[in-house]
Design a protein that fits this description.
- It catalyses: Hydrolysis of terminal non-reducing N-acetyl-D-hexosamine residues in N-acetyl-beta-D-hexosaminides.
- One of its GO terms (cellular component) is membrane.
- InterPro entries: Beta_hexosaminidase_sua/sub, GH, Glyco_hydro_20_cat, Hex-like_dom2, HEX_bac_N.
- The active site is at residue 292.
- By secondary structure, the chain is α/β, with parallel strands linked by helices.
- It has two domains: 2-125, 2-Layer Sandwich (Chitobiase, domain 2); 131-468, Glycosidases (TIM Barrel).
- The chain is built from 15 helices and 18 strands.
- The protein has helices at 18-35, 61-67, 88-101, 145-157, 181-185, 202-214, 230-235, 264-280, 298-314, 346-354, 364-367, 389-393, 424-431, 434-443, 451-468, and strands spanning 2-4, 10-13, 41-43, 52-56, 72-77, 80-84, 117-119, 121-125, 131-137, 162-166, 168-169, 172-173, 218-225, 285-289, 318-322, 335-338, 358-361, 409-416.
- The two termini are 34 Å apart.
- The relative contact order is 0.10.
- The structure holds ligand TNX.
- Residues 254, 291-292, 322, 339, 368, 370, 381, 417, 419 line the site of ligand TNX.
- The site of ligand TNX has 10 residues, from loops.
Length: 475
């Protein structure tokens, strides 16, 4: 038994839900180019003839509990397709499964003649982890807002729910801050390798955040501090001290810069920046970096991070930081992002988690999409070794860090650092297929993971990526 998408199909969405209607429009926009069908979107009307596709929010009681915030149930019969969820985010995930069940030609930007059939059956699906992210490094290589939206689409396709934007680093400051014009006039004008850099206006960040939110993806903005701040200090020299002279930097070393810990000018700056970033992004988290502050003693680092965390909380956000914060004093409710290779720093992270911190796992030797696939590759770094597709897939979050309580793992993140990138094509070569390894690790139940099956399913994605114009590594 199959269902076939026909020219007269309509998309009926949960009455009274603007979010469901928006998801219906997003689905229609995905299906119209290849099919050439009009696919009107309208509120579901039980008295009308079957629409073809229905996106409903009628999961209730035990089923709603089972589906949670992002789960969905997909039923395909000869009469039509129904996606049901308890929350709008579930519909957003469900339409991507429907898209995957259609023939690969559905990815074409031009009209194609194909039999738009979907196999019949029912699927109940929900994510394993509540945080499933990818970070994009705008600082080492600048990406425009349109390019970032392209990555949001990639994340939506594989059911991610967080886009982490690394907005600042030694090589560039990428976000407009009112009252601090030199950040963008000077701080934004560099990137790795000497290119022109660039920055987003506040409206750009608002717009990308809204585009992601319509796809039920939360933007987590990161302002890295106290290290990784060369670009900010070049723009505002009073932010530095330690008798170090700051010059624009386009290399790829880390750990040499720091905001001045003892200066009130530093905290006045943080209050402005964090306040504005908090107001621009509705999500719960604000990431303050905290990694590789190699010029600071542990004492000075703690003094700084204590004050920075207080400022984040004052502006109504939950602190997120790289796991080095575990070596200082994470505030209650802080989320630590573990990024090292091997089990390095497992002890301090596990101790912080036992004291109540939550942990997002981004182990460099598995989820760093900027690691080279293999020796001899043009793209990617190798400081955490090479990460082939199997290495990116075969690890287990619940037991990855010795001593880390399983319930403290909030989720998993893929990281795309930009040191070796010069274009979106470079980025997609590193991202695909490893984005899917991290997606499956974050979404699917532990017992459903299976490398031979995954490897075969990656190859099945190739015709979709070819038609969608997505670059990838044939691995
Ligand atoms: C380490 S991950 C860094 C980044 C680099 C990355 C390159 C982390 C918190 N710090 O500054 O871009 O390695 O792989």
């Amino acid at each position: 038994m199959t269902w076939t998408l026909t020219p007269d199909a309509r998309i009926a969405t949960a009455p009274g839900s603007a979010a469901a209607a928006r998801t219906g429009e997003i689905l229609a926009a995905l299906l119209r180019p290849a099919t050439g069908y009009p696919l009107p979107v309208a509120p579901y009307d039980p008295a009308a003839a079957p629409a073809g596709i229905a996106l409903l929010l009628d999961a209730a009681g035990a089923e709603a509990g089972e589906l949670g915030a992002e789960g969905y149930r997909l039923d395909v019969t000869a009469a039509g397709v129904t996606v049901r969820a308890a929350q709008p985010a579930g519909l957003s995930r469900g339409i991507q499964t429907l898209r995957q069940l259609l023939p690969a030609e559905i990815e074409s930007a031009q009209r194609v003649d194909a039999a738009w059939t979907v196999p019949g059956g029912s699927v109940t699906d929900r994510p394993r982890y509540e945080y499933r992210g990818m970070s994009l490094d705008l600082a080492r290589h600048y990406f425009t807002p349109a390019e970032a939206r392209r990555f949001v689409d990639h994340l939506a396709r594989y059911k991610y729910n967080v886009l982490h934007l690394h907005l600042t680093d030694d090589q560039g400051w990428r976000i407009e801050i009112d009252g601090r014009p030199e950040l963008t006039a000077i701080g934004a004008s560099t990137q790795v390798g000497g290119g022109p850099g660039g920055f987003w206006t506040q409206d750009d960040l608002r717009a990308v955040t809204a585009y992601a939110a319509e796809r039920h993806i939360t933007v987590v903005p990161e302002i890295d501090m106290p290290g990784h701040t060369n670009a900010a200090i070049v723009a505002y020299p009073e932010l530095g001290c330690d008798d170090r002279k700051y010059e624009p930097y386009t290399g790829i070393e880390v750990g040499f810069s720091s905001l001045c810990v003892e200066s009130e000018a530093t905290y006045a700056f943080l209050d402005e920046v964090i306040g504005q970033i908090a107001a621009l992004t509705p999500g719960p988290y604000l990431h303050i970096g905290g990694d590789e502050a190699l010029t600071l003693s542990a004492e000075r680092y703690k003094v700084f991070m204590d004050r920075a965390q207080t400022i984040v909380e004052k502006h109504g956000k939950r602190v997120m930081a790289w796991h080095q914060l575990a070596g200082a004093a994470p505030v209650p409710g802080a989320v630590l992002e573990y990024w090292n290779q091997g089990k390095e720093d497992a002890d301090i992270v596990a101790a912080a988690a036992r004291a109540g911190a939550k942990v997002v796992l981004a182990p460099a030797d598995h989820t760093y999409l900027d690691m080279a696939y293999a020796a001899g590759e043009r793209l990617g770094l190798k400081w955490a070794g090479t990460v082939d597709v199997k290495q990116s897939y075969t690890w287990e979050p619940a037991t990855h860090l010795p001593g880390l309580p399983e319930e403290s793992v909030l989720g998993v993140e893929a990281a795309l650092w930009g040191e070796t990138l010069t274009s979106v094509a470079d980025a997609e070569y590193l991202v695909f297929p490893r984005l899917l390894s991290v997606a499956e690790t974050a979404w699917s139940p532990r017992e459903a993971k299976d490398w031979p099956s995954f490897e075969a399913r990656i190859t099945e994605q190739h015709p979709r990526w070819d038609r969608a114009g997505i670059g990838y590594a044939k691995r």
